[in-house]
Design brief:
- The protein is an alpha/beta fold and 491 residues long.
- The chain is 52% helix and 10% strand.
- It has a five-stranded parallel β-sheet, sandwiched between helices. The protein has a five-stranded mixed β-sheet with strand order 6-7-10-8-9, with no helix packed on it.
- α9 crosses α12, α17 runs antiparallel to α18 and α19 packs across α20.
- The longest helix has 26 residues.
- The model has no long low-confidence stretch (mean pLDDT 91).
Length: 491
């Protein structure tokens, strides 16, 4: 630190009135040659002014900037400039300097760079009177959050949650919306302003949806959310899902779940995946939500089994995925750029190549066709085989060549002996997949679309028979074909 660096002594004005102010802090304020306040909106300030204590506040800076971070940065820059002029100043903040006070943290960062010397002079935190007033024992666990910069993932329903810096209804509205991501709309929350200050204290408990409708927000306002073990709240927690799956697999859990292995539920993973795909095709969000849950259950079971064997946990799965997503998106999380999807894909492939090299897999040491999951449906597998081969130039020049190949394979199938037909049919299907690729169509999706169309039109025929009170044995192909054409017409 430079010898020329000035000193800022930071003290806290506490959470109440002058009577609650520690004597040492009171003496520092009284003796200060130059006293600066983050805000004059505090019960202690009027009493100090009545005793002739002069000060300068930064309240006007709040009106000059659009975000709290800009306000805090500006206050710090002003404090450093004042210290450079005067050598030593006193800076007073609400509460305790080291509890929910962003400007002090910024000052400490500047001290670490050698720009200033910071002396923390103490003060009473707003937490003490709040704990006493609401009869909270912090040993049970609590979280202190900043209402101006709050995220839903910071809210743990199992802890006492205290939200500070809820200055006005705008901040309160943001806090409400964030809490609603975790808690029911009618969950009770307590808004406490000027706790312990005679004549100013206001404490109200209201449903969460009414949080921003109160009229006593200010510099001394806190929002308190009591912990809960309600099932409707816990159901939304990923940690509860982990707990449930572990219980199901435990000795006291479900006999069926305990007996399962990776192999025994292997097919379930495929089935649940296809059920999710069906909801996508049906454009059914409610069903999709349910089926994604069933698919997630399969992932959780496999992860739990691996954890029991000491291989990895679901947290390892999440950590690996997060790390991979960030590593493979340097154009989002790093210093690379990607102006379109093609450039983003090029970045992805380059990174994958480096990852393989890091694992000792040298270019050319593996087949170009490696890396395709062998259990994919045959149409999809063929599509990916052709795509990989095309990347190294093994491909037709234009679509006319592909069409001729389809016609050629069809003719060979027509002329094939019975024992050769399976192979020739496979060749024809492979050629049709190639045609789909040239048309930039997914053959699996195209065939699935036709399957759904067939099922829809066949259902029309069945409905016509039901209306007529007849069975398939009592109709013929000509009549059914007429109904089929009717179904096409209705579409």
């Amino acid at each position: 630190m430079s010898d020329a660096a000035g000193t800022i002594t930071v003290v806290g004005l506490g959470a109440g009135d002058l009577e609650q102010l520690p004597y040492g802090v009171y003496r520092t304020l009284k003796q200060a040659k130059r006293l600066y306040l983050r805000t004059r909106e505090h019960p202690v300030v009027a009493s100090l002014a009545a005793e002739g204590v002069a000060y300068e506040s930064f309240d006007e800076i709040y009106e000059q900037h659009g975000t709290f971070e800009e306000v805090y940065e500006r206050i710090v820059e002003t404090l450093l400039a004042k210290t450079a002029e005067e050598g030593s100043i006193v800076y007073a903040v609400p509460g305790h300097p080291l509890v929910a006070e962003r400007t002090v943290q910024l000052l400490l960062e500047r001290e670490a760079k050698g720009e200033i010397r910071v002396v923390i002079g103490g003060g009473q935190s707003f937490l003490d009177p709040l704990f006493a007033r609401l009869q909270i024992d912090p040993i049970e666990g609590f979280a202190l959050l900043d209402g101006t910069d709050m995220r839903a993932d910071q809210v743990n329903p199992a802890l006492h949650t205290i939200i500070a810096q809820v200055y006005d209804t705008f901040v309160a509205s943001d806090v409400k919306l964030t809490l609603m991501e975790v808690l029911p709309d009618e969950y009770p929350v307590t808004v406490a302003t000027a706790v312990g200050v005679a004549g100013q204290e206001r404490i109200e408990t209201v449903p969460l949806y009414e949080l921003d409708r109160l009229d006593h927000f200010g510099n001394l306002t806190l929002v308190y959310v009591a912990p809960t073990q309600e099932e409707r709240v816990r159901y939304r927690q990923f940690s509860y899902l982990k707990e449930i799956v572990a219980i199901l697999r435990s000795p006291d859990g479900c006999p069926w779940d305990r007996e399962q292995t990776h192999q025994s539920i292997r097919k379930n993973l495929l089935e649940e995946t296809y059920e999710v795909l069906e909801t996508i095709d049906d454009d059914d969000p409610d069903a999709m939500c349910e089926e994604l849950g069933d698919l997630l259950m399969q992932i959780m079971l496999h992860a739990q089994m691996a954890a029991e064997d000491g291989y990895f946990t679901v947290d390892d799965v999440v950590a690996g995925l997060n790390e991979k997503l960030i590593r493979r998106h340097p154009h989002v999380f790093g210093d690379k750029s990607a102006g379109n999807a093609e450039e983003a894909l090029a970045n992805w492939k380059e990174i994958k190549a480096r990852e393989k090299a890091a694992k000792g897999i040298e270019p050319g040491s593996r087949s170009q066709l490696d890396g395709i999951p062998r259990d994919l449906p045959a149409l999809m597998y063929a599509y990916k085989l052709q795509k990989k081969a095309a990347e190294v130039g093994f491909d037709w020049d234009d679509i006319a060549d592909v069409c001729r190949k389809v016609e050629e394979e069809f003719q060979e199938l027509r002329e094939a002996a019975p024992e050769e037909r399976a192979g020739e049919l496979g060749d024809l299907l492979f050629a049709v997949v190639n045609l789909a690729r040239f048309l930039k169509l997914d053959p699996e999706e195209a065939l699935a679309k036709t399957n759904r169309k067939f099922k829809r039109r066949f259902a029309y025929i069945e409905e016509k028979l039901r209306q007529a009170g007849r069975t398939f044995a009592e109709t013929n192909l000509q009549e059914m074909d007429a109904w089929w054409e009717e179904a096409k017409h209705h579409e």
